[in-house]
Amino acid sequence: MADGGHPGVALAALLLFWAVLGAEADYALYKDAAQPVEARVADLLGRMTLAEKIGQMTQIERLVATPEVLRDNFIGSLLSGGGSVPRKGATAKEWADMVDGFQRACMSTRLGIPMIYGIDAVHGNNNVYGATIFPHNVGLGATRDPGLVKRIGEATALEVRATGIQYAFAPCIAVCRDPRWGRCYESYSEDRRIVQSMTELIPGLQGDVPKNFTSGMPFVAGKNKVVACAKHFVGDGGTVNGINEDNTVINREGLMNIHMPAYFDALAKGVSTVMISYSSWNGVKMHANQDLVTGYLKDTLKFQGFVISDWMGIDKLTTPYGADYPYSVKASVLAGLDMIMVPKNYTQFISILTGYVNSGVVPMSRIDDAVTRILRVKFAMGLFENPYADPALTEQLGKQNKLPWW
């Protein structure tokens, strides 16, 4: 050639240019584990449609979940209610295979956002056949041994992860003030100081927070730990005459001195989620209590994880239950709830909340706050990097040499 060039060099340069351009086009910051959590959250949130955001706020029961339901509605979370199992006597592998099947459906969506699966592992992974069962909280509180409780949390985390599940609805940090309450056995003690000490279950489940940790931030120390849930916010153990799901009549000072302190400890230990109580405080249903959920928990205590409803908790805002479901959706989301344990009526919930956002009744800022918190937990726990079960952990179910007294 007259200019002395070589056509092969030019072609190689062109191919390299297009390869680099293509790689840059495929790069998504939220998929980059080297980036800070908050940057990943902001990047992903900015890519999401309203439907994808509301899907993240929706937790459904496994019985109504299909791959099509999960994909079409961008579902962010599933759970097993009491007795909801793959089959009677299902093995850890069968549990993990079921959870992974649901996860594959969620990962196949446009943005590939993994779901988080929750279960009531409240005294061991008690829904699973062959799991180690520990005493209920009232018995553990009687030990006065926070170290033992932490080790129980560590064992429970492994047995939950053995089934592919990443989220335990524990601990219950209610302060039972009346033994007539039917759920008093879920409380560590009538003494709030003992309940505070028993929040050591949280680092057992999630891992120990690092030095200079900021209270209120969610923390999970890797794929062998699970997301914990402090519940039930707040005052569930103080209802009049111990009537379940009823009214806690006490002034603000009393609420703060008796029922709130264990939440201070839970947040300091990095608890990732808080579940709201069915009960009321001075006549105001907790699932609609914006003052305590947003004003105090989020704004004053600076909780940065996500707030979740209890099972059909928003339905119970009306009498009879579900009598005005649109009101229940609006009141709970505006109060500051981020994820709703629907658990089966997901189509109505999604439709109603979508309508409220489109009409301006629920501002997009409230939706963005909720989804930011949910994504923050998912990124903090490493769910995007490890969305599936670790087959090596299935043998941990019921394994004796990890028990706290071994």
TrEMBL record:
Segment forming the signal sequence: 1-25
Q: In this protein, which residues make up the domain named Glycoside hydrolase family 3 N-terminal?
A: 49-377
User: From what superkingdom does this record's organism come?
Assistant: Eukaryota
What's the short name of a Pfam family annotated to this entry? Glyco_hydro_3
Q: Which GO terms describe its biological process?
A: glucan catabolic process
Q: What is this protein called?
A: Glycoside hydrolase family 3 N-terminal domain-containing protein
* UniProt-recorded Gene Ontology molecular function terms: beta-glucosidase activity
Source organism of this protein record: Triticum turgidum subsp. durum (Durum wheat)
Key words, A-Z: Hydrolase, Signal
